[in-house]
Amino acid sequence: MFLLKPINKMWRGLTVFGRVGLLILVLLIFMAIAAPYLTWQPHHASSGPSLAPPGGAHLLGTDELGVDLWAQICYGARVSLIVGLGTALLAGLGGGIVGTFAGYRGGWSERALMRLIDIMIVMPDLPVMVVLAAFFGSSLRNIILVLALFSWSYPARIVRAQVLALKEQAYVKIARSYGAGALYIIFRHLLPELLPILAVSMIRLAGMAIVTEASLAFLGLGDPTSRSWGLIINHALNFRGIYFTPYWKWWLLYPWVFLTLLVSSLALLGRDLERIADPRVAKG
Cα separation of 190 and 181, whole Å? Predict the structure, then answer.
C-alpha cells in the first residue's frame, strides 16, 4: 500500500506522451512474461510452410524455415527486456555507487575516478563492444556484462555532480557537525535525493542497451539461441532478395516495429520522469 502514493504521484505528473510510453512498456512486459500463453506455435522449430504471409495459423507469418514470427517476437521481447534491465541495474547501481563515493569523499580518489570516467566516456563504445563480444563469446550474460562495463560512467558522472551539490546543503553540514557518519548521511540524506535522478539514468541506460544488443545481434554477434529481435532482422537481411520480394513486409518490418515501440516507450517515459525529478528541466 505504501507504493500507491508515489505511483499515483508519478502517474499524475506524466504527460500524455509519458502515459502512452508507460502503457506500451507495460504491454510489452506482459507480452514477454506471458509469451508461452500468447503463442500457439513453437518459437524454435518449424510449424508451417516457409515464408507464409500473416494470417490463419500464423498471425505475423513465418520465416524461411517456417518458424512462426509472432512466437519469435514474443520470446524475443524477453531477451530485449532482460538485456535492458540487467544492464540498467548493473551499470546504474555500480555507477551510482562510484559517483556517490567520488562526490562525497573528494580528494585524490575523486580525481582518479573522474579520469577513469572521462576515459570511458570518450572511448568508442560499439567497436570495442564488437571486439569484446567476439572475444568473450555471445551469450546474454557476456553481452550484459560488456554493456554494463561501457555504461556505468554516465550515471556515475551525473550522481557525482548531484552529490557535490547536496553535500554543501545546510542540513548535511549540520548532520556532519553532530557527528553523523558518511554512511548515515548517504543513506539518510543523499540517497532519497539521488534515487529519482538515478532512476531516469537507468531508464535511459535500458534503452541504450536494448539498441546496442539489437545492433550486435544484427551484426551476427548476438546469442544465436536467443531469437532476439536484432537476430530476426539479421536473418531477414541475409535472405537473398529480401527487398525484391514481399517477405520484408512481415519478416523484416514487424521486429523493427516492436523494437522501435520498446525504445520509444522508454524514451518517452524517461523524458517525463526527468522533468518530474528535476523541475528545472525544460518542458517539451
Answer: 13
* Closest by Cα among 253, 258, 242 to 64: 242
Beta-strand (E) ranges in 1-53?
A: none
* pLDDT value of position 5: 54
pLDDT in tens, 27-47: 999 998 988 888 877 666 566
Angstrom CA distances, 68 to 58, 126, 218, stand at 6, 31, 19
Q: Is residue 47 part of a domain?
A: no
Work out how many domains the chain is built from and give that number: 1
φ/ψ of residue 55, rounded to 5: 130, 165
Look at residue 281 and tell me whether its pLDDT is greater than 80. no
Kindly state whether residue 214 falls inside one of the protein's structural domains.
yes
CA 61, CA 73: separation in Å to the nearest integer? 11
| Domain span holding position 178 | 15-42+60-277
Specify the residue for cell string 524475443.
76
Domain-located, residue 55: no
Assessment of whether the complete model's pTM goes beyond 0.85: no
Q: Classify residue 190 by its DSSP letter.
A: I
Look up the CATH number of the domain holding residue 87.
1.10.3720.10
